[in-house]
Structures are given as C-alpha cells and as structure tokens.
C-alpha cells in the first residue's frame, strides 16, 4: 500500500536504469551526449558509503600546515605556494623540508622511504568491510606521477618512479586489489590525468604527446591489469576534455575494455566536465547537494594524505561523520571518506577507531542508508535562519553539528532526515526526540507501523491534523551502545509487517 502524505497517495520507490548485460552491448560514441546516456551501474547509487585512500611518497613527509592538503607536498615545495583554510606565506613547506631533510634532498629522494613494510592488504580490507563501506578507492597515481603499480610509463621522466622499483618494491595496487576481491567491497582506483612535473607536461607544446604517449597507454594498462569497478579521475582542470581526448578514452572504456559492462566513472575528465559530465558527479569538502547521482569526498581532518601536523582537534568526531553521511544520503548522494596511511602502511589508530564506530552504527541502522533513495522532502527543518556562512575554503566536518545538535542562536536545525525504499520511509533524528517524534505534513493509514531500528521496537503513533506523531519509549541508555546514539532511525511502513 502506498504511503499517504497530507492526504495524497504516494508510491515510495522509483525505477533505476540498469546496464545491458546481454550480448548486445551499446556502442557509445566519443561525445558527451552519447557517453552521458550510459546508465550508471545500480550498485553505486545503492552503496552510499565508500573509503578513499591517499597513499604515496607524500606519506613520507606527511606534513602540511593545518587546513591544507599534505598530498600536495611536492607542489607546495617547488612552487612556494600554499592554499587552504588560513593565510600562508608559501614558505611553510620549503622551510620545513630544508630543516628536516636538508637542501640537497629532493622530493624524489623521499620515495626511497615509502617502504610500505607494514602494509597488510587483507587487514585493510577487513577494516573497511567492518566500517560498513561498500566500495574503496585507492590512489593508484596522484599528481606527483608516482604509481603504486609497475607502470612502464611512470619511468618516462628518465628514472624509476613506481612502487615496484622504488621504496616498497611491491605492486601495491595488485596486492590491494586481490585483498578487496576477497570481500564484498567494490574496487575503485583513483587516477590523476596530469602530473605536475613530468617533462612532457611542463612543455606545453608537448602536451598532446603527453596525452597520447603517456596518459593513454598508462590508463589502459591500469584498467587492463586490475579491472576496477570504479575509476575516480582527477587532475583534469588544466585542459578541456577534447585536449585530453577523454571522450575517446571513455568510448574505449565503455565499448572495448574488460570492464565495459560494469565500470563506474566520475566527472573529472576535462576542465568543463566537473559537475556536468560523467557517470556520477563529485563535490569536495562542500555542504550541499547535486541533482544527479553524486558523491562528496572529504578526509577525517582537512588533508587527504596523512598529515602528522593535525591533532585531535582537527579530526572530525564520529558523531559528525555519521550525521554527515546521513545528510548526504538524504539528499541522494554517497560519502567517500578518506583515510591517509603513513609511509609504512599503517592506518592511524584514530582513523581506524572512527571507521569501526561508523560501522557499529551502520550495523543497526544501515537499513535506512543502503539502497535508499531521496524522498521528496529530504530534511525537516526547525524555525530559524538556514544560511550558515563561512569564509573557509573547505567546509569543516564538524559543520554538520551546528546544523543539527549544536546550533548558534537564531539558526535553524535539521531535525529529521528522510530516506526511502519501495515499501518504507525512514526518518532519522540526530538526537533523541524526547516524548514524541513529530513528522510534519505526513499521515499514515490505520494499518501503518512505526519502529525504531535500534532494538527493533514497535512504537505507537497517531495522526494529529496533518502531522504524524510517534510516541517515544522512555529513554534508557543501557539499551544502546554508545555508537548507536549518534542518530536514531525510524522505519515507517503503510501496513504492519
């Protein structure tokens, strides 16, 4: 039976397009109209929660001022520039580098210390699975050009610049891929189109050669070797997609590659494609929503790569991370949450703790997250000003607390988040509602049912005018684990189950 909203019959659910998996495979043309017509594999929109991993030679210094990206260490060092949340002179990284490593040590020399000697891929995979993630994205190559697999093209700058020959002496992508394939997680690989200091890239006249002789064969090698479920492109902003020839590359990916029928890609394929073209759209340290399948990526602190300069005050609390996930999912998006291992392959304990705590919440409340869709009203607001303003470049992970449980005077709060499935509506409250939970402009038929997912309690309710009022049980913290109290999820069905 459909739910009823303000007296109007509502069918909860929608048809999701699926890929053709029969012998007749669509032939996509190298233009965005054709490429954007390809249906997105349904698993991605259902997954909701993924793990991002930034790991490479930048994990050796693992240093940048608070509010900036440590994985940009080489660029900050050589350009004497620095940007992020705060004001900087540009000398911060060069001064640190000289005082730590000396004037004669280059960024390339640091890769020898990228040993990965404590990297245990099966342990990583188990941690991400326990966190409740459904997919994982590893940086196969960041903007420094160092590859975590034995790439022939990586050495075209005149010296070895890959993890099989330098530092770890291991095929890290290969080992990671094998470990992920043992789980139910989907395998994603991040790949940077450009490289800051590749000789062909630095010479603008040779950039077409960089595209055809470096980027193209390297990208195809990565896909053919590891056959990822997802490709997360980046570093696209310096040229339009026609110069990158990415429409031609994606036509190959969709028509001829070994992952043609399954692969999911993002929107970073040229300076004009961001938030416009590709399989799904992306945001980064933002607060908002997009109106196609989308994904927000952010770190637990302000850096994607491990930054030893960050302390406990810089790490987002688990409650804020859970509420961020809920907020994003209610608006139809996924959260790609980053961890930054150190150079030896350790994932910092605070990151492990955050992941496991999120996983504990999802074990109880995941029904309201996985496989859900955006309801017509994603959020129920309180009265007050909804426009929180900040001059920061990157939105803090704790920002969600001001929007929910710790508002400033005069500002509104997001009191209830909503998600839906075909036969159920989910209402997620950031805090214990008190004696009653009131859902505005929503009525249930007489045979409807409301339950609290934590403890699977059936709750009494009544329609009061245009609103649904749910009677809450007496709160007993002994009935909940601490991780279950980050938010409270209610399942609403049109009939008793």
Automatic annotation (TrEMBL):
GO terms for molecular function: alpha-L-fucosidase activity. Keywords: Glycosidase, Hydrolase, Signal. Pfam families: Alpha_L_fucos, Fucosidase_C. GO terms for biological process: fucose metabolic process; glycoside catabolic process. Residues 24-367 form the Glycoside hydrolase family 29 N-terminal domain. InterPro entries: FUC_metazoa-typ, Fucosidase_C, GH, Glyco_hydro_29, Glyco_hydro_29_N, Glyco_hydro_b. One of its GO terms (cellular component) is lysosome. The record marks 297 as: May be important for catalysis. It comes from the Bacteria. Residues 412-493 form the Alpha-L-fucosidase C-terminal domain. Its EC number is 3.2.1.51. Belongs to the glycosyl hydrolase 29 family. Alpha-L-fucosidase is responsible for hydrolyzing the alpha-1,6-linked fucose joined to the reducing-end N-acetylglucosamine of the carbohydrate moieties of glycoproteins. This is alpha-L-fucosidase. It comes from Thalassotalea marina. The lineage of its organism: Bacteria, Pseudomonadati, Pseudomonadota, Gammaproteobacteria, Alteromonadales.
């Amino acid at each position: 039976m459909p739910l009823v909203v303000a007296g109007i019959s509502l069918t909860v659910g929608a048809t999701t397009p699926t890929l053709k998996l029969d012998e007749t495979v669509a032939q996509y043309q190298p233009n965005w109209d054709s490429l954007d017509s390809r249906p997105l594999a349904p698993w991605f929109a259902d997954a909701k929660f993924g793990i991002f991993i930034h790991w490479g030679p930048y994990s050796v210094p693992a240093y940048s001022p608070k509010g900036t990206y440590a994985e940009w260490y080489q660029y900050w060092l050589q350009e004497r520039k620095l940007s992020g949340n705060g004001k900087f002179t540009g000398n911060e990284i060069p001064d640190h580098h000289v005082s730590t490593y000396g004037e004669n040590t280059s960024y390339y020399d640091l890769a020898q210390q990228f040993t990965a000697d404590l990297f245990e891929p099966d342990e990583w995979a188990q941690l991400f699975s326990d966190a409740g993630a459904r997919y994982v994205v590893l940086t196969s190559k960041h903007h420094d050009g160092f590859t975590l697999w034995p790439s022939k093209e990586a050495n075209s700058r005149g010296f070895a610049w890959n993890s099989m020959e330098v530092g770890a002496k291991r095929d890290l992508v290969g080992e990671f891929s094998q470990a992920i394939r043992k789980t139910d997680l989907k395998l994603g690989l991040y790949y940077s189109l450009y490289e800051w200091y590749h000789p062909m890239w630095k010479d603008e006249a040779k950039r077409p050669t960089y595209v055809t002789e470096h980027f193209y064969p390297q990208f195809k090698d990565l896909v053919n070797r590891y056959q990822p479920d997802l490709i997360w492109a980046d570093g696209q902003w310096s040229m339009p997609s026609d110069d990158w020839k990415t429409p031609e590359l994606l036509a190959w990916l969709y028509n001829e590659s070994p992952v043609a029928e399954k692969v999911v890609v993002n929107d970073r394929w040229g300076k004009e494609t961001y938030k416009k073209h590709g399989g799904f759209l992306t945001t980064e340290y933002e607060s908002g929503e997009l109106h196609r399948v989308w994904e927000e990526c952010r770190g637990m602190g302000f850096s994607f790569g491990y930054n030893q300069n960050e302390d406990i005050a810089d790490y987002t609390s688990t409650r804020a991370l859970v509420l961020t996930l809920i907020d994003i999912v209610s608006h139809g998006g996924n959260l790609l949450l980053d961890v930054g291992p150190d150079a030896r392959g350790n994932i910092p304990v605070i990151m492990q703790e955050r992941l496991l705590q999120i996983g504990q919440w999802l074990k109880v409340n995941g029904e309201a997250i996985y496989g859900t869709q955006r309801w017509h009203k994603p959020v129920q607001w309180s009265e007050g000003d909804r426009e929180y303003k900040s001059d920061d470049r990157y939105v803090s992970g704790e920002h969600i607390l001001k929007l929910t449980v710790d508002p400033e005077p005069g500002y509104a709060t997001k009191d209830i988040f909503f998600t839906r499935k075909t036969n159920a509506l989910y209402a997620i409250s950031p805090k214990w509602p008190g004696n009653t939970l009131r859902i505005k402009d929503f009525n249930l038929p007489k045979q409807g049912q409301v339950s609290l997912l934590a403890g699977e309690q059936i709750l009494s309710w009544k329609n009061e005018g245009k609103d649904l009022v749910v009677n809450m049980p007496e709160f007993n913290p002994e009935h909940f684990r601490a991780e279950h109290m980050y938010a409270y999820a209610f399942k609403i069905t049109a009939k008793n189950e």
